[in-house]
Amino acid sequence: MKYRELGRTEMKVSEIGFGAWGIGKSQWVGADDNLSLSTLKAARDSGINFFDTALAYGNGHSERLLARAFGKSNDVIIASKVPRLNLVWPARNGTPLRDVFPREHVLKSLNQSLANLERDSLDVYQFHVWNDEWAHDDEWLKTVQEMRNSGKVRAVGLSINDHQPANALEALASGLIDTVQVIYNIFDQSPEDSLFPYCRQNGIGVIARVPFDEGSLTGNIRADTTFPSNDFRNIYFKGNRKQEVWKRVEKIVADTRVPIEELPSLALGFCLADPTVSTVIPGMRRPERVLANAAVSDAGPLSPAMVDKLHRHRWVRSYYPE
Ligand SMILES: NC(=O)c1ccc[n+]([C@@H]2O[C@H](COP(=O)([O-])OP(=O)(O)OC[C@H]3O[C@@H](n4cnc5c(N)ncnc54)[C@H](OP(=O)(O)O)[C@@H]3O)[C@@H](O)[C@H]2O)c1
């Protein structure tokens, strides 16, 4: 496993990190706690040292599993998130900050996450959604300062709205934010336009999330794929979206001549090809996924010609109403 700087935080994070949404057993259905614990341990054994979770993932279940797997051990770096008070997704224009991240809610949530994780401090604490209309809000600026001064948080991050990577640049200019978490994958390459250049110049750590587009870039989402009832992918891949993503996946395979079984590695390799990315965090619920994904770092970078080819598969879309 290779490691990269998490921006200016002085933390060194594994190129392949761990997305711990799926093991939280909320919107993703089908995780098994014993298997999740083996998966987390396999991750650490493979050199993965960065784990992304959230209070919202199973109302703390994902955080509590991390505590069970790792205890207080300080060789893992844990990033968690403040949930949205108003539960609205993504963060909408015109919504006051007070409705989403009031001071008392942020500090109470932080204490709850620390209790779930059985830790005295968090390595990275991220706002789970963001709208740059809040960037100059006095209450927010003071809350961030207060968190930083409390010693309970080593770094503060923003988790940026899906497909809106520039909707954080104002807040980053405050100098109070150390990391961003953003969707970045073969389909959604939009962070390369203005977010990544800003992060490079200003030492902001970049956590690349949803590298498989919730599964389509693994090659496992086909027209006839079904999901357990209550699984959020029934909505994410609703209507003709499964056909649409499969058509695009077939084009990637034809263009690159990479066997479809190797598509997951290609998808992670694409994310790591941009040196601005500090870590990429695939969601994993089984040890064999960890072994396959960790191997991508060991295998070394994709060729520039392959990265160029993959850049031609950019797909601009939004699954959310404006
Ligand atoms: N901040 C936010 O708002 C936000 C939103 C979304 C995600 N995230 C973070 O980003 C992480 C990653 O996103 P995600 O989990 O939603 O989606 P993802 O990483 O794009 O895709 C996860 C899917 O890929 C499968 N997979 C993983 N490795 C594979 C491999 N080698 N071969 C085949 N399939 C493989 C998983 O399998 P299994 O079904 O076997 O698990 C799962 O179905 C989350 O866990 C979370 O930490 C944050």
- Mean pLDDT figure: 96
| Low-confidence segments | none
Shape: globular
Strand order of the largest sheet: 3-4-5-6-7-8-9-10
The SSE string, one letter per element, is EEEHEHEHHEHEHEHEHHHEHH
Associated small molecules? NADP nicotinamide-adenine-dinucleotide phosphate
Largest sheet: 8 strands, parallel
What does this structure look like?
With 322 residues, the chain is of the alpha/beta class. 37% of the residues lie in helices and 13% in strands. The protein contains twelve helices and ten strands. An eight-stranded parallel beta sheet has the order 3-4-5-6-7-8-9-10, covered by helices on one side. A two-stranded antiparallel ribbon has the order 1-2. Strand 6, helix 5 (138-150) and strand 7 (153-159) form a beta-alpha-beta unit. The longest helix is centred in the C-terminal third of the chain and has 16 residues, at 241-256. The protein is globular. The model has no long low-confidence stretch (mean pLDDT 96).
